[in-house]
Amino acid sequence: MTERQPLLLQSDASDYEGNRSLARPPVRSSPPDSTLVNVQSEDSIAVHAAGAGDDDEQSSQAGDNIAKYNPTQHRTVEHPTSNFDTMVHLLKGNIGTGILAMPDAFKNAGLYVGLFGTLIMGAICTHCMHMLVNCSHELCQRLQQPSLDFQNVAFCSFETGPLALRRYSHLAKRVISTFLFITQIGFCCVYFLFVALNIKNVMDHYFFLDVRIYLLLLLLPMVLLNLVRNLKYLTPVSLVASVLTVAGLAISFSYMLHDLPDVNTVKPVATWSTLPLYFGTAIYAFEGIGVVLPLENNMRTPEDFGGRTGVLNTGMVIVACLYTSVGFFGYLKYGEDVKGSITLNLPQGDILSQLVRISMAVAIFLSYTLQFYVPVNMVEPFVRSQFDTTRAKDLAGTILRTVLVTFTFILAAVIPNLGSIISLVGAVSSSALALIAPPIIEIITMYNVGYGRYNWILWKDIAIFLFGIAGFVFGTWASLAQILNPNVD
Question: pTM for the full model?
Answer without folding.
Answer: 0.78
